Amino acid sequence: MLKKTFVLTAAALFAANMATAQRGAQYEVTITNLTPGQSFTPQMVLTYRGEASIFELGEPASEALEILAEGGNPGPLIDEFANVVWDSTTIGGLIGPGESASTTLLGNPGQGRISVAAMLIPTNDTFMALDGADLPRRGSATFMVPAYDAGTEANDQNCNNMPGPVCGGVGADLVPGEGEEGYVHIGNGFHQLDEGNPDVLSPLIYDWRNPVARITVTRVTN
After folding, report:
1. pTM (predicted TM-score)
2. Alpha helix locations (H) across 141-193?
3. Domain assignment present for 45
4. What is the spatial distance between Cα 39 and Cα 147, in angstroms, rounded to a whole number?
5. φ, ψ dihedrals at 56, nearest 5°
């Protein structure tokens, strides 16, 4: 069962505390769910320096990304940024269809980047992500964000293989299995599969079209 709370690992917490002590501008980040039937798991928000990325389209997902995309746990992915992070936070709880959530954190305008990520539930291995966008020097920047498929689990839409309150199935399973695409790609929604099987979710309720999220980043202090 997916846990709705998340505790930063020691490495990420240390990095976040160090970042808070640094000088920087404060940013407000607002995430809005644009889907009709999916929810976002607790949302990872990072500001950092350098060229670090959550993923590369067409390339295999890291184990940390697989854990987020299949189970909704952002902890290992936050750890991957420990050496470059400026500030980090996780917005706890789910963002349901049509809902929004906000947080504030520090960043370096003109040099810093921001990444945001969360799993879509109920899915097998789909996530939304803003990956390495430039922090605005002033005012706001709005990003329309698609869903991505981690390519680490077959998209069988079977509740036994999907975590969260709708299904309560298995979360991250790091053992390779049949039907995995093997690389990160744009998510292509739900389809009509195995009609008549009560464990297989219908696209009539859970399908989506991209973009799935609107993310607004606003500089609020110097």
Report:
1. 0.87
2. none
3. yes
4. 12
5. -125, 125
Strand partners, 164: none
Q: In the chain, how many domains are there?
A: 1
Nearest-angstrom CA–CA distance, 182 and 61: 8
Task: Report the amino acid identity of residue 210.
Answer: N
Q: What is the mean pLDDT of the chain?
A: 89
Domain that holds residue 186: 10-219
Tell me how far apart the 2 most distant CA atoms of the chain are, in Å: 58
Please report, rounded to a whole number, the percentage of residues in the chain having pLDDT higher than 90.
Answer: 80
**Domain harbouring 27, CATH code:** 2.60.40.2130
Judge whether 180 and 154 are in contact, CB under 8 Å.
yes
> Residue 5 falls within a domain, yes or no?
no
* Per-residue confidence band for 22, with pLDDT thresholds at 50, 70 and 90: low
Contact status, residue 126 vs residue 149, Cβ threshold 8 Å:
yes
